[in-house]
C-alpha cells in the first residue's frame, strides 16, 4: 500500500457512516469523499447508484490529521 511512501499520511474520519475509519491521504486535501454502492431495483442499461458522503479537513483540532463528516454537503 502507501505505508512508507513519502507525502502520504494517515487521517481519521470522524462522524457519519465512515466514523472511525483510517485513510491515507497525500497533500492534506480539504475534502475526502467516501462512497457506498446502492442497490437499484430494475436498473436500466446498466445504471448504478452510489451514496456519497463528504468529510472536511478539521484544522481546529491539534494532533493527528482528522476529517469531520459534513451532513450538509450536497
Characteristic key phrases:
single chain; 74 residues; mainly beta; five-stranded mixed sheet
Give a concise summary.
The chain is mostly beta strands and 74 residues long. It has strands spanning 8-14, 22-26, 31-38, 49-57, 66-69.
Mind sketching the topology for me?
Layout: E1 8-14, E2 22-26, E3 31-38, E4 49-57, E5 66-69
Parallel strand pairs: 1-5
Antiparallel strand pairs: 1-2, 3-4, 4-5
Explain this structure.
- The protein has one domain (8-69).
- Helix content is 0%, strand content 45%.
- The chain has strands at residues 8-14, 22-26, 31-38, 49-57, 66-69.
- Strands 2-1-5-4-3 form a five-stranded mixed β-sheet, with no helix packed on it.
- The mean pLDDT is 90.
Approximate strand percentage: 35-45%
Which regions have little confidence, pLDDT < 50, spanning 5+ residues? none
What does the largest sheet look like? 5 strands, mixed
- SS elements, strand count: 5
Round the Cα radius of gyration to an integer and report it: 15 Å
- Backbone structural class: mainly beta
Q: How many H/I helical runs?
A: 0
Amino acid at each position: 500500500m502507501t505505508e512508507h511512501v513519502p507525502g502520504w499520511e494517515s487521517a481519521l474520519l470522524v462522524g457519519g457512516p465512515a466514523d472511525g475509519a483510517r485513510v491515507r491521504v497525500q497533500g492534506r486535501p480539504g475534502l475526502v469523499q467516501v462512497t457506498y454502492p446502492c442497490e437499484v431495483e430494475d436498473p436500466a442499461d446498466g445504471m448504478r447508484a452510489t451514496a456519497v458522503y463528504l468529510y472536511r479537513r478539521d484544522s481546529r483540532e491539534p494532533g493527528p490529521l482528522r476529517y469531520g463528516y459534513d451532513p450538509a454537503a450536497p
